[in-house]
Amino acid sequence: MQQQFSKFLPQSFQQAPRHTHQDNDVKKLIFNETYATPTVKDMLIILPYFNPCNSVRILQNLLIVRNKLEQANIPFLIIHCLFPCNVALEKESITYTTVHSNSYAFLKENLANIAITKNLTNYNKFFIHDGDVIFKERDWYNQTSACLDNHDIIQPYSTFKTMDANFIDVLTQGYSLFSMLSKDKPSKIQIGHYGYLIAFTKQFWLNYGYADEALLGGGDILTCSLVLQTQFFVDSQNKAYIEYLYNIHLKSNSPKVGYVPCTIYHLYHNVIQNRQYWTRYMILDKYIGINKMFHNIQEMIKKNDDGVYEWNSIIREEINKDVLKYFKMRQDDEVL
Question: Given the DSSP bridges, would you call strands 263-266 and 133-135 parallel, antiparallel or unpaired?
Fold first, then answer.
């Protein structure tokens, strides 16, 4: 697979200025050290991948993650959504599969659900893994699987560090949301991170599902809100958008949540400000609301034959332009 992917890689990494403190062991960790091979392979690592702007950095990060999983013989599946501007990275295999869509969107949860549906008989646990995260601990897979023996859904890390483009400087760092629940001051959960990684049992997925209609992002905060039965989005610009999904997916009973005391490194794809995490939801203001064409996002979408959500044909051309413009403004390949 590595040779098939190699034609998409850049010749060298771009250089980035230093912002905070250095972690000189990270580059060695990423490129020289290998993960531990699992003792029991009962958990599938799912890497949802969509790249509407054909970002080299996004692909580069994915390949780094894939190589480390492959070297350790960890079971994984890259599920790649091909938009009209994309090509497949390799032939279909046990570790790589493709689906298609004519609609630009955030598809992490949607793609994960497709992958889970196809692997329900093969695994009892599922781990949704962003394609730009590396673990410090070699045995994170075994730790995560063991934690899921006693919990329904977990964040498989406690600490995160976001790295610069050179894999040397730590730009930001913090803690996972679920790990903050164990602290002495529960109010601190407001500063915990919602995303990067989530893992759950097959039974959790069958009982609670994995909400996947957050097509302009926010799926991580929606998942955390649902399992903790707490609206973490109340003061954000995506409140109406996420609140609708929260209300239709909320269950009366809550699952048992946990975390794994691991450290992860988030690989660089431009600074966080460029991702416009809060303003991106304003795209929907043109389409949803009083005297608008739709009342909620569910009315705007429909699954195609591959199971991927696509925009309603009435507004597809216009919203595709809006969403693609947003993706381009992220400038994932730029180094600041």
Answer: antiparallel
Q: Report pLDDT digits (tens) over 167-210.
A: 888 888 999 999 988 665 445 445 689 999 999 999 999 999 99
The whole domain housing 252 covers 2-330
What is the CB neighbour count within 10 angstroms for residue 152? 18
**What is the separation, in whole angstroms, between the first and last Cα of the chain?**
32
Report the distance separating Cα 273 and Cα 20, nearest Å.
16
pLDDT at 2: 41
- Would you say 328 and 271 are in contact if contact means Cβ atoms under 8 Å apart? no
What one-letter code names the amino acid at 255? P
Report d(CA 227, CA 251) in Å as an integer: 8
Q: What does the pLDDT look like over 243-293, one tens digit per residue?
A: 899 999 999 999 999 999 999 999 976 655 554 555 778 888 889 888 889
Compute the distance between CA of residue 238 and CA of residue 284 in angstroms, rounded to an integer. 10
Going by the DSSP 8-state scheme, the letter that residue 38 receives in this structure is P
Please state, in angstroms and as integers, the Cα–Cα distance from residue 93 to each residue in 5, 74, 78, 89, 96, following that order: 13, 15, 10, 11, 5
In a domain, 335, yes or no: no
Domain count of the chain?
1
CATH code at position 207: 3.90.550
DSSP-assigned letter for residue 137: S
pLDDT at 252: 92
Q: Are 175 and 192 in contact (CB under 8 A)?
A: yes
Q: Are 176 and 144 in contact (CB under 8 A)?
A: no
Q: What single DSSP character describes residue 280?
A: G
- Cα 191 to chain centroid, rounded: 19
Q: What is the pLDDT of residues 95-140, one digit of tens each?
A: 999 999 999 999 999 999 999 999 999 999 999 999 999 999 999 9
| Distance from C-alpha of 92 to C-alpha of 88, rounded to nearest angstrom | 9
Structure tokens belonging to residue 228:
């903790």
Amino acid of residue 15: Q
pTM equals: 0.90
